[in-house]
Amino acid sequence: MTTFVSHFKRIFLKFTEFNFDSGLLEGIEAANYIKTTPIQEMVIPHILNGKDVMAFAQTGTGKTAAFLLPLINNVLTKKAGTGIKCMIIVPTRELAVQISQHLEGLSYFTPISSIAVYGGGDGNDFIQEKNALIKNAEFVVCTPGKMMAHIKMGYVNLEGLQYLVLDEADRMLDMGFYNDIMFIIGKLPQKRQTLLFSATMAPKIKTLAHKILRQPIEVSLSLSKPPEKIVQQAFMVYDEQKTPLIIHLLKEKQYRSVLIFCSSKLSVKNLTRDLKRKGIVAAEIHSDLEQAEREDILVGFKSGRIPVLVATDILSRGIDIDNIDLVINFDVPRDSEDYVHRIGRTARAAADGTAFTLVTLKEQRKFHFIEKLIGKDISKMSVPEHLGKQPAYSPAQKNDSAKPSSKRNFKPKGKRHQ
Ligand code: AMP
């Protein structure tokens, strides 16, 4: 069964209309959630009814609370045996930390216990996780590889597990976690409730769902449409114009919080270095950094200490950072859906936001696909005069080469910028 939801036609429910535990309602109040979001309205009743659910919803829709709230309530109210009750498997450590914090917040006024289990930690982390797992934390939020390592050690009691959530399932498959996930599922009781959340409806997700869900309710929020309130603009540029243009944009207006996405670690490192040289307070985040460093940088960015963060797509999905004024795509994302995820980092909740995308000649066709995906033309902006001429936008032409045009009059000062 597929249920399509429109954001505009529904009158959202108040959380008091669900028969939630009073401690959980206190947590919801403390989080300042007044009414359900569409995804919450659609899936919470099914989860409370014990159904398996396959939900297609992007980050930013309130999907995390959509599964956390009914699961916290179920674990609180339904007495069951010992061991872990609920396992939430996610693709990245950042998402594990974030969901775990979300869980702690919402269950603050309840006796629920939880542990986050994710890769990248040291021996102490492993022992701490092991102890929490042995003590049977009720909720485990984990990345697949690390959870599998603990299960293989033999001390994880999964006999009483009743609920399994796969969050960002499409991302996990993209990252090659299929075998790890199937290993873990093979160790879980067959009689359980399984929820699968995915941002995209790729056929491989449906195949996975078919294997692990039982007669699921399928819920789909319309995908691939960034919120209308995001001002989207694009600059057609030559390669060498990218970094000077970003420096210009950052200096032209005072932004409190800017997230810049690059498709490669190398671009992230080079751009951050160039921004710092120009006196811009910036930090970089990518998978070469240690977990502690990444967390430190995220805290700095969230608190405003670091106004400009340059990131790989590691941060494009799932990470909940509010109040970003500006997202810049240093390059056009490979996957059109990633564009929606990247710019969805701005204009969260009630705030407005801006998204700039820098498009070189060879990226114009990819950019055109994005415009088709989101169903609208993104405004094309002029680069400032001192950067010289910019290329025209003509995606229909075969723009395989980003070689400099002889007509260009922009001259980089002796070094490559990316
Ligand atoms: P998510 O899609 O789960 O990443 O959630 C995006 C943001 O929406 C998070 O900051 C949540 O705390 C927030 N949120 C979730 N549910 C609600 C709600 N019902 N009302 C207001 N904010 C919410």
Q: Output the number of helix runs.
A: 14
Radius of gyration based on Cα positions: 23 Å
Count of domains = 2
Q: What is the end-to-end distance? A: 48 Å
Major pleated sheet: 8 strands, parallel
Quaternary? single chain
Task: Name the CATH class of the largest domain.
Answer: Alpha Beta
Biggest sheet: strands side by side, in what order? 1-8-2-7-6-3-5-4
Instruction: Tell the overall outline.
Output: globular
- Kindly report the name of the CATH homologous superfamily of the largest domain: P-loop containing nucleotide triphosphate hydrolases
Beta-strand percentage?
A: 15-25%
Q: How many β-strand stretches?
A: 15
- Whole-number mean pLDDT: 86
Briefly note the CATH topology name of the largest domain.
Answer: Rossmann fold
Note the topology:
Elements: E1 2-5, H1 22-30, H2 38-48, E2 53-56, H3 63-77, E3 86-89, H4 93-106, E4 114-117, H5 123-134, E5 139-142, H6 144-153, E6 163-166, H7 169-174, H8 178-186, E7 193-198, H9 203-212, E8 217-221, E9 230-236, H10 242-252, E10 258-261, H11 265-277, E11 282-285, H12 291-303, E12 308-311, E13 326-329, H13 336-343, E14 353-359, H14 364-374, E15 379-381
Parallel strand pairs: 1-8, 2-7, 2-8, 3-5, 3-6, 4-5, 6-7, 9-14, 9-15, 10-12, 10-13, 11-12, 13-14
Keywords, separated by commas or semicolons:
Rossmann fold; 418 residues; alpha/beta; disordered C terminus; eight-stranded parallel sheet; binds adenosine monophosphate; 2 domains; seven-stranded parallel sheet; 15 strands
